[in-house]
Amino acid sequence: MSTTTHMTILGMIFLLLAASCRSAAAFSLFLDDPCTVTDFPALCRGTIKGQKNVNAATDVAIAELMKRTRHARDIAKKELKVLDGGVSTCLSNFNSAFDNLDKALKNIKEGDRFSLNINLSAALTDYDTCSETMKGTPGNNAIYKSAGVLYKMADNCLALSTLFN
């Protein structure tokens, strides 16, 4: 073999070692703080309450999202009595999101990562639809703001679920 071939092989080995070290370092970050994979890490950290285990963190994050969805649903029910607008759409979407999150918790218990991602994606779409419906609607800022926060939380849950084992 020529010197150039040896140098090429050594260079490739070096690149592979460097990439694996970087992956190991990134993986250890996930072990220390699963929220590093999320788009909204501060919100995630406040939601998972110090959980280091990815599966437990995902479970806690979904449970908290369900709690906040229930609260947003109660607000939407009160607003619906005053005026409709997009509130009925949001109420329907909050109900749908809650059902999808309930399924997601069952998916965690069953170890069904594929269905977990589907149900979390569906909930994310529900919150986004509500936000889009309420955008620019005067007097319903609480529902619009709630849907925005719920969207971010669902996005975080979906990111956490990618680490689920």
Automatic annotation (TrEMBL):
Residues 26-160 form the Pectinesterase inhibitor domain. This is Pectinesterase inhibitor domain-containing protein. NCBIfam families: PME_inhib (TIGR01614). It comes from the Eukaryota. It comes from Brassica oleracea var. oleracea. Belongs to the PMEI family. Residues 1-26 form the signal peptide. SMART domains: PMEI. GO terms for molecular function: enzyme inhibitor activity. InterPro entries: Invertase/methylesterase_inhib, Pectinesterase_inhib_dom, PME_Inhibitor. Keywords: Signal. PANTHER family: PECTINESTERASE INHIBITOR-LIKE, PECTINESTERASE_PECTINESTERASE INHIBITOR 26. Pfam families: PMEI.
